[in-house]
Every structure is written in C-alpha cells, then in structure tokens.
C-alpha cells in the first residue's frame, strides 16, 4: 500500500492488520512519520496513532461502514 505524506513523499508499505477504524502498516524499512502526522493510506486519510516495531499504526479519519468491510476491502 502507498502511504503518502503530503503530495511528494510516498512510502511503500505492507498492511499487517486492518480493522474498520485503522490499520497497522509495515513500512519496509522506511523512516516512520511522527505520531500525529496526517497521512493518506491508499485513498483513505488517516492519522498516525503510534509507532510499531517496523512501521506505524493509523486511525482512519472515516471508519469503514461495517456492511462493506470484508476480505476484499480496498484502501
């Protein structure tokens, strides 16, 4: 997944876990943004809530509606 900081900084990542309200993302060795940073994960806007060992955990600004959330959900 692409994690964008503004329009010019793009970090490649791998989703480790995802829920209706957020996701844990492995940033593949890239430097992590600060806690509180607004990012775009795919097409969804989010806030970095904490740093994890290999990346970040984000909270989506708008959670997924439960009726469309399944194993085929797309960011």
What's the short story on this structure?
The protein is 0% helix and 49% strand. By secondary structure, it is mainly β.
Could you outline the blueprint of secondary structure elements for this entry?
Blueprint: E1 2-5, E2 9-12, E3 14-18, E4 22-26, E5 38-41, E6 44-52, E7 55-60
Please tag this protein with its features.
mainly beta; 75 residues; 7-stranded antiparallel beta sheet
Describe the structure.
This protein is mainly β. The protein is built from no helices and 7 strands. The chain has strands spanning 2-5, 9-12, 14-18, 22-26, 38-41, 44-52, 55-60. Strands 2-1-5-6-7-4-3 form a 7-stranded antiparallel beta sheet, with no helix packed on it. The radius of gyration is 11 Å and the shape is globular.
* Contiguous runs where pLDDT drops below 50 for at least 5 residues: none
Radius of gyration: 11 Å
Strand fraction equals: over 45%
Distance between the termini: 8 Å
Counting DSSP E segments of at least 2 residues, the number of strands comes to: 7
- Major β-sheet annotation: 7 strands, antiparallel
Spatial order of strands in the largest sheet: 2-1-5-6-7-4-3
Shape: globular
**Average predicted confidence as pLDDT:** 93
Q: Provide the helix percentage.
A: under 10%
